[in-house]
UniProtKB/TrEMBL annotation:
Similarity comment: family membership: Belongs to the universal stress protein A family.
Native source species: Lujinxingia vulgaris
CDD domains xref list: USP-like
Record-linked Pfam families: Usp
Domain UspA: 2-141, 156-295
Protein name (database record): Universal stress protein
Domain of life: Bacteria
Length: 302
């Protein structure tokens, strides 16, 4: 497993670093290999004062920045000397995405300052671009979630579309690593919608919602039983709600003390970054807890 920590050495990034270190140790405890690298991306203009030399062209600057990152890691944990330190220049979203793609990264871990505000190097648009562009599991860590607690509260949002299957199995894998119970969550849309042909409103009565809730819960249980074939020790609960998706998921996170919410994400190109209409995008902006966003093509056996 390859874990990449994207850091700007800020206070917010410290929580992400500890989270990534904890993840690596848990993977290693299962006798699987796991590597952790720390990537620091500097904008090209950052070194313009140095006679126009770029980071890669100046060994002294490169050495100083590497030392700074190394010392920063050592303040967080004494077990960081084996972490590879990577220095790059350019637009952070582009550099990080390209690195993840080229090196087949499994986990990308970022720090945030909570309440939807992204830390210095990941200012707003950069993080939102990574939410969509990164080809791997992407974790946005809130400051108060510096480690995977014992055990963490894990919830995965499922919509029964193909993309959510990858989120489910990634969530089950993390529950296996941490000994956590996994909550399976589905949101029913209770808002009346016009029909395509007549323009009339489709209305679900309370009885209809009750029946649909029960059928949906049965489907969630079937999914839970399916993942237990891979992880027999896994325990899970199913939760079915009716209401606006983002607000209802946020309420679930608050009432169930969720440490990490796992969602499937849609792959988008750079030209589609402004069309952030998906639930994953909305939850990334809302950011009620730490989030893990899983691409539909994610594979656990990489």
């Amino acid at each position: 497993m390859k874990i990449l920590l994207a850091t700007d050495l800020s206070l917010e990034a410290e929580s992400a670093a500890r989270w990534a270190l904890d993840l690596r140790e848990r993977i290693l405890a299962t006798e699987r290999s796991a590597s952790l690298s720390a990537l620091y991306v500097a904008p090209p203009e950052h070194y313009s004062a140095n006679a126009g030399e770029r980071l890669a062209e100046n060994p002294d600057i490169n050495a100083r920045q590497t030392h700074q990152v190394r010392e920063w890691l050592r303040t967080l944990s004494p077990h960081t000397d084996d972490i590879d330190i990577l220095l790059e220049e350019g637009k952070p979203a582009t550099v990080i995405t390209n690195y993840c793609t080229t090196h087949q990264v499994d986990w990308l871990v970022l720090g945030t300052s909570g309440a939807g505000a992204i830390s210095r190097a990941m200012l707003g648009s950069t993080a939102m671009k990574l939410v969509h562009r990164a080809p791997c599991k992407t974790v946005l860590v809130q400051p108060d979630h510096a480690t995977l607690s014992e055990p963490p509260g894990l919830s995965v949002a499922l919509d029964f579309m193909p993309g959510s299957q990858a989120a489910l199995f990634s969530a089950a894998h993390l529950a296996h690593l941490t000994g956590a119970q996994l909550d399976l969550v589905h949101i029913l849309h209770d808002t009346p919608t016009p029909t395509l042909n007549t323009g009339l409103v489709n209305y679900l009565s309370p009885q209809d919602i009750d029946q649909l809730t029960e059928r949906t819960r049965e489907c969630l249980i079937e999914l839970g039983v399916e993942v237990k074939t891979l992880y027999p020790e896994l325990t899970f609960e199913s939760h079915v709600y009716a209401g606006p998706t983002v607000a209802t998921l946020t309420q679930h996170c608050e009432t169930h003390s969720v440490d990490l919410l796992i969602l499937g994400k849609k792959s988008r190109s750079a030209l589609q970054d402004r069309a952030l209409g998906s639930i994953a995008s909305a939850m990334a902006r809302k950011h009620p807890t730490s989030l893990m966003l899983v691409p539909p093509e994610d594979h656990l056996d990489r």
